[in-house]
Amino acid sequence: MNEIDRLSEFLQRLTPLSRSCLLSELERLELCGIDMPGSADVQARLRAEFRKDGSTQARATSPSRYFFAPLELLLIDGAPEHPNMGRISRNTLTPIWEWICRDLLPTMARDYIKAINDQVTANNPKEVLKIASIFQTKVVKVLENTLASTESTEFARGKLAQYTASRSAFDDVKKMQQVLRAGAALPKFNEKLPEKIAKFDDGQVAQITARLDAFKKAHPEALPFALALVARRLKTSWQLVHLATRAAASKSAADVAATPYACVVAMVLDRLDDKRLALRIALRHNRVLIARDLLAEIYDTEYALKVRIDGIEHCEWGVRLQQLMDAIAALVAAEVSRFPANVGHILGSRRLRSHDTLGGKLSYLAWKGRDAVQDGAAAFRKLIGQT
Q1: Max CA-CA distance within the chain?
Q2: Are the C-beta atoms of residues 227 and 212 closer than 8 Å to each other?
Q3: Rounded to two decimals, what is the model's pTM?
Q4: Which of 37, 301, 303, 353 could make an S-S bridge to 238, C-beta 3.0–4.6 Å?
């Protein structure tokens, strides 16, 4: 009881914002696979305070929620430490907000919080949005000055590191700056997208590419976020590669890399890495059915990249893909090895990797045959044009 009392006393000495930040950091470490003795008890106490539903998803307080509202469609749950182009980790918002309030703009942040709370109490939503927009503009301007030199950037990075050990947090600050600087352009782009893109065929790719071209011309820095909004509409995330592969002169990795939207391949690999983390967590908590579905999606993505980009294994994309698949294979092998050799395991089923079956291989050959015909026709048209 003395240890529990001392723990409770310590937590109560922290400010509410610090306790919320501590909760986010403990959850981030857990998602990264780092075991912290006693962490479960601390998390349970803090969730009881901040999240009445006991969820592990961060719930921002009203002032910060209004400030971060423009990021909402770009937020991802979890704590990825790998690159995540066009998306921001929800878990970094709490430490970023504490950094803004304590170090970046302490006086203005205090005034902002009071003004927001007053207008929320007065039930004046229009004024709330106006106040939030003004503060967002101030933060963007201060960040522009802060990040203008290497010295001030490193100083800011060090200050933020006092609130989180996440390697991606400072990158999320820069992403936040880019999103806020784009203003209403991203919401307007998002509104014009189809609600769902069930089939990302040539017609849809052409339409989306035209919209992306116009957006990129006006807001080149914010392009990854526009691409992330497109990805949200797709049936499966790997379909995003169509923006690069269908614009390429051929299916070779070099030609795909030369297209204006070649960055989508890295974005698909980012999402594959997300699935790797999710798979590890599912296996850790014995959620085998969830792990099975994740593994099927992972294998589908691997197959899609290999069949649509020739020679991918010889480029940087292929190296990362192989590293991810090796890590995933190790997770699966560790899980399957827990059972006797004569006992089948659902994660070891060949059905999950249907592309290795006879039907899958025939489909692969059909794809290659169609590509050969299309490449031959293109070469013939080029030859005729030269003569």
Answers
A1: 91
A2: yes
A3: 0.78
A4: 301
pLDDT tens for each residue of 48-80:
777 655 554 445 568 999 999 999 999 988 666
How far apart are the C-alpha atoms of 271 and 174, rounded to whole Å? 20
The CA-based angle 284-285-290, given to 5 degrees, is: 100
Say yes or no: 261 and 375 in one domain: no
What pLDDT score does 355 carry?
A: 59
Q: Using DSSP, state whether 89 is helix, strand or coil.
A: strand
Could you list the residue range(s) of the whole structural domain that residue 366 is in? 357-387
What is the dihedral sign for C-alpha 117, 120, 121, 126?
A: positive
Query: Same structural domain for residues 294 and 148?
Result: no
Between 387 and 352, the more confident residue is 352
> Do residues 225 and 251 share a domain?
no
CA–CA gap between residue 253 and residue 255 (Å, rounded): 6
Give the end of a domain, one of 165, 200, 235: 235
Q: Does residue 27 sit in the same domain as residue 174?
A: yes
C-alpha distance across the termini of the chain, in Å: 91
Q: Which token pair is 170?
A: 């400072």
Residue 132: C-alpha distances to residues 117, 290, 368 (Å): 11, 39, 53
List CB contacts of 324: < 8 A, sequence separation 6 or more. Answer: 269, 272, 273, 276
Q: Are residues 32 and 126 in the same domain?
A: yes
Long-range contacts, 102-110 (Cβ 8 Å, 24+): 103/156, 103/159, 103/160, 104/139, 104/142, 104/143, 104/146, 104/156, 105/138, 105/139, 105/142, 108/135, 108/138, 109/135
Per-residue model confidence (pLDDT) at position 58: 47
Check whether residue 47 and residue 73 sit in a common domain.
yes
